[in-house]
Amino acid sequence: MKASNDMVVTMHYTLTDDSGTVLDSSAGHTPMNYLHGHGNIVPGLEKALEGAVAGFKTKVTVPAAEGYGEIDPEAVFDAPREHFPDDMELAPGILVTGGHGSPLTVVEVTDSVVVLDGNHPLAGKTLHFEVEIVDVRVATREEMSHGHSHSGDGHHH
Ligand code: ZN
Questions:
Q1: What is the CATH number of the domain that holds 113?
Q2: Domain tally for the chain?
Q3: What are phi and psi of 72, to 5 degrees?
Q4: Taking residues 117-127, what's their average pLDDT?
Q5: Is 41 found in the same domain as 27?
Q6: Mean pLDDT throughout 13-18?
Q7: Scanning 1, 5, 64, 85, which has the fewest C-beta atoms within 10 Å of its C-beta?
Q8: 52 and 89 fall within a common domain
Q9: pLDDT over 90 percentage in the chain
Q10: Is residue 96 part of a domain?
Q11: pLDDT at 100
Q12: How far, in Å, is the centroid of ligand 1 from the Cα of 108?
């Protein structure tokens, strides 16, 4: 079977940045799976895997625009320090949860403000994927209606 819309694709992958640093990998873990055609993985990778079959191995370079997006300078903003609990650990690099549950990265902390960045940590980066397709199967009716795969661990609704 070939990866196409409404197929569940299972794969091993390793994601590296331009310098070859591994950012994420399924090596040594259960392979990841996703429902093809529903935007569950970055667009550039989904496009590259269209038509792939079990056993297919590929290297895909995904520009930021087809990955987690370009860095949006407007997503960096100041929040009053008093909006955070006194005992909360705030330091550059720490992730906090924003008002809509979206992750924000702390950029800088002063006595009065906390500078936050709402860009995805991988925004602006070219993504280098090494992928091996393990399995391709037809999605169940339930998976199609939910818009995601139900295989494997860590699935929540
Ligand atoms: Zn579901």
A1: 2.40.10
A2: 2
A3: -100, 110
A4: 94
A5: yes
A6: 97
A7: 85
A8: no
A9: 87
A10: yes
A11: 78
A12: 38
Verify that 87 and 55 share a domain, yes or no.
no
Range of weakest confidence among 53-62, 86-95, 96-105: 96-105
Ligand 1 geometric centre to CA of 155 (Å) = 7
In the three-class reduction of DSSP (H, G, I as helix; E, B as strand; rest coil), residue 14 is classed as strand
User: Measured between alpha carbons, how far is residue 50 from residues 2, 5, 8, 35, 125 in Å?
Assistant: 8, 8, 12, 12, 23
Q: What is the DSSP letter of 101?
A: S
130, 82: one domain: no
Cα separation, 66 vs 61, in Å, equals: 10
Residue 154 lies in a domain: no
Q: What is the pLDDT, as a whole number, of residue 156?
A: 67
- Which DSSP letter does residue 140 get? P
Task: Give the pLDDT of residue 102.
Answer: 82
Q: Domain range holding 24? A: 7-68+122-146
Distance, CA 150 to ligand 1 centroid (Å)?
Answer: 6
Whole-angstrom distance, CA of residue 102 vs CA of residue 120: 10
CB distance 68 to 42 below 8 Å: yes
Cα of 49 from ligand 1 centre, angstroms: 22
